[in-house]
Each structure stands twice: as structure tokens, then as C-alpha cells.
Amino acid sequence: MKMIIAIVQDQDAPSLIEDLTKNRFRITKLSSTGGFLKAGNSTLLLGVDEDKVDEAIKIIERNCKTREITTSLMSSGMPGDTYIPYPVEVKVGGATLFMLDVDEFIRI
Ligand code: 2BA
Questions:
Q1: Residue 9 and residue 39: Cα distance in Å, rounded?
Q2: Residues 97-104: what's their mean pLDDT?
Q3: Has this prediction a pTM greater than 0.85?
Q4: Which of 43, 81, 91, 104 is the Cys-Cys partner for 30 at CB 3.0 to 4.6 Å?
Q5: For the packed helices 53-63 and 13-22, what is the interaxial angle rounded to 10 degrees?
Q6: Atom 33, ligand 1: which residue's CA is nearest?
Q7: Whose CA is nearest to atom 12 of ligand 1?
């Protein structure tokens, strides 16, 4: 069994969860925050049999879009300086996936 940790944009999470559950995947959704943008995103945990991993990835691909986001980050030159906002444009994935081997899966 594999554990897929999928970090996705909040906008894509509802349709992705619906599509995954419709296809009999089990999911836990965690509310998370990206370290760079400091904006909310969604982290999904999927415990998946090895032969279902490709199917899960295909479902994630068809539900998660890449978006260009312009946002303001704050910079300060020296400690004590005022923070100055500056615009940055970033391309936020699709999805960021981590694949972990599961030693044991127990349901009680
Ligand atoms: P954030 O950390 O808020 O990053 C949002 C987007 O900002 C990233 O999109 C990337 O395009 C850009 N970005 C992130 N760190 C950057 C940096 N140091 N310099 C320049 N640009 C930077 P994605 O790569 O699609 O990542 C989307 C979200 O997935 C991230 O939100 C973070 O929550 C998570 N993530 C991505 N890679 C990760 C990793 N290696 N470990 C843990 N979480 C990760």
C-alpha cells in the first residue's frame, strides 16, 4: 500500500474529493497553509493499494489546474525596518504529490 500526500489548491479540492470518492478512494482532507504564499491550501491523505496509484494520479491530474497568481510579499532590509510589500507572480501547481510506502494499515 502507498500513502499519497497531495497538496492542492482549495478551489480544486471539492471536485477532486468528489471524483476520488466516486471512484472508491478513501480520503482525509487537512486544511493547510503554503509556506511561501502563506495562503490556505488543502492537503489530502490517500491510502491506496499499489495497483490503484496510477488511477488516483489520473484523477488528481484531471481535477487540479495550474494557476498564475500575483500576490504581495513583504520584505524588510534590516531588523527594525518597515516591511515593504512587493508584487510577485507565481505559478501554483496543479498538485504537489508525495508517495510514501505504508508499512502497515490497520482499521479497527
Ligand atoms: P506555497 O509554499 O505557498 O507555494 C506556492 C507557490 O509559490 C509554489 O507552487 C511555487 O510556484 C512558488 N514558490 C514556493 N516556494 C518558493 C520559493 N522559495 N521561491 C519562489 N517561488 C516559490 P507549487 O510548487 O505548486 O506549491 C504549491 C504548494 O504545495 C506550496 O504552497 C506548499 O504548500 C506545497 N509544497 C510544494 N512543494 C513542497 C515541498 N517540497 N514540501 C512541502 N510542501 C510543498
A1: 10
A2: 98
A3: yes
A4: 43
A5: 150
A6: 34
A7: 90
Assign residue 80 a region: left if phi > 0, alpha if psi is -120 to 50, beta otherwise?
left
* Distance, CA of 69 to CA of 66 (rounded, Å): 10
Cβ-based neighbour number of residue 60 at 10 Å: 21
What's the rounded Cα separation, in Å, for the pair 85 and 104? 47
Pocket test for ligand 1, best of 11, 91, 96 (most atoms within 8 A of CB): 96
Which pLDDT value is given to residue 27? 98
The pLDDT tens digits of the residues spanning 19-60 come to: 999 999 999 999 999 999 999 999 999 999 999 999 999 999
Grid-cell match 471524483, residue found? 19
